[in-house]
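User: Some background: our group keeps a shared notebook of sequences we're curious about, and every so often someone picks one and asks for a predicted structure to add to the entry. Today it's my turn. The entry only has the sequence so far, pasted here. Could you supply the structure so I can complete it?
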Amino acid sequence: MNIHARVPVGVLGASGYVGQELLRLLAGHPRAAVAFATAESAAGERRDGVELVRVEDAPLGRAEIVLSALPHGVSARYVQEARGLGKRAVDLSADFRLSPDAVYGLTEVTRSHVAAADLVANPGCYPTAALLALLPLARGGLIDESREVVIDAASGVTGAGRALKRDLLFGEVAEDFRAYAAGNEHRHLPELKATLARESGFTGDLVFTPHLLPIKRGILETIHVPLTRVIDRATAEGIYETVYANEPCVAVLHGALPSLKDVVYRNRVAIGVAPVANVRRPRLTVIAAIDNLVKGAAGQAIQNMNVMLGLPEPRGSRAEHSGRQAGRQRARSPCMARGVRPRARAARARRGGARRRARRQRLVAPARAAGREARWRRVTSPEVAEVVELVMWAVP
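Assistant: Of course. Here's the predicted structure to add to the notebook entry:
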C-alpha cells in the first residue's frame, strides 16, 4: 500500500454552497482527490477541475469515501447506496443526525467514535457552535437546569442554501436584520437537546431563536447561560482552555469576544465569555462564532473524513476562494489564526515592495502647456496618474 497515495473521494451535491466549498477544500487536500462530483441542473459543467455528473450516474465504486451535501430527505438514499457498496460516508444533511445508524460527527467531542465509523452524520451549523460553547459548562455541572439556556443565533444567507427564494433576494435582505422560526420550533432544536443529553446529561430547557444577517457567510451566537454558582471571567476562560487546549480547530479568546472576522473561511470555532452583572442569580454570556460553510459544514466534514482515514485533522483545510478577502487569506489555514509562514509572508512583502517602487517610477504624467512644449510632473497617486494620463493623451 502506498502511504502517499491520494484517497479517492466522491462528492454528492456539489453545486450548492456547501458542495462548492467541499470541492474547493478538497482541491487543496494533499492526500485526497475528487473521484467524482454530482449535480443535477449543473451536470456537464466543470467546478474546480471536476466535471459534474448527475447523481443517478455517480460512479460510487470509484470512491473510498463519499461526502454527501444533498438536500435533507434526499441524501439518505444515496448514502445508503454507497454504504451498500462498502463505502464509508459523511452525510452533511440532517437525515442521520438523530439516527442510531450513524456516529454524530462533532469532531472535538466524538473523535474516537468517528475514527471507527462507517457513517458519520455531520452536525448542523447552528448546533456546532452552540454545542462546543455549552458542553464544557454542562459537563462541569455549571448550568442551572431549573432555568432556560437562551441561544440567539445570527447567520449569513448562505446558511439557507442556494435555491431561489424571494425572502433571500438582495433587495429583501440588504440593510435588514430579522428573526425567523421564532417560538422555539427550529429544526435544529431536537439535535441540540439530544446531543447535550447524550454527551453531558444536561436535560434542561433551551430557547433557540435564529436570525438572518445581511451578509454572505458566518454565524455569531450569543448564548445566555444560567449558572449554578458564580464564576468570574478568568475561571470561565480557564474551563474552556482546559477542554480545548489541544484542539486545532477551536480558539478560546482571553479578555475578548469573537467576531465573524475571526472565523470566516476557516475551519474553527472562536469562543469568548463575559460574566453578567446586575442580575440576582448568576449568569454567563458565551459568544461563539463559526463560518457556516466551513466549520459549520464542509470543513468539519473534511475534518471528520481525515479522522476516519487516520489523517491529521487540519489536513486539506486551505480554503481556496475568490473575492477581495480571498486574495489576503488564500493561504490561510482555517483552523489557525495564522496560516501563512513568516518566510513566505516576507517574500511576498518584498515582491509587493518591488512592484510599488516600479509603479512609482512610472507615475509621471504629461501636462500639456501652451504650444507644442510639454512639461512633466510627478503624480503620487496611482489612480490620479491613470486619470491624468488618459485625459492628457486624449487632448488633440
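Suggested note for the entry: Residues 7-123+296-317 form a domain with the Rossmann fold fold (CATH 3.40.50.720). Confidence is low (pLDDT under 50) at residues 319-334, 336-345, 362-383, 385-396.
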